[in-house]
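How it folds:
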Amino acid sequence: MRLMSVTRWPLLAVAVCLGVAGCGSSTSSALTTASPASSGPVIETNAPAKVVAAIAQARREGTVTGPVQWITTSTQGFARVSGAGPGAADVPIYVVEMQGHFVLDNAPRPLGARSPEGSTMIVLVPLGDGEQGGAGVVLGATVTDLSSYGDVHWYGSSS
């Protein structure tokens, strides 16, 4: 995976959880989906609330142009395969990958530097609540094969 920018995004998890009702809930939320092509992935209609919240936050940061894929892994599992992501704590996370155009205007950067942007955004969202760590964002230019991390789930939205 060719990375344009790796940004730890601890405020995303907070903003995501504050911006979506029921974020801490373990219930699923429905997304309206389009029918996948017969040779494409099976696009499901339910996602954990935190995955839906990450998608909603990404839509505020840019444009999501295709189906969203996500898996469940840990911070160390993600770092081991990708070479990117949060370092110290090994906590269970959702890895949510979206395609489109994303600009992180609130990302820390040197004075005068442009905001990081990319055509793929991977959002790392801790499964648990609280200050356990594990939140982050990876912007890139290519889609990552998330099957290296575990079972891939696909979601699409017509809105």
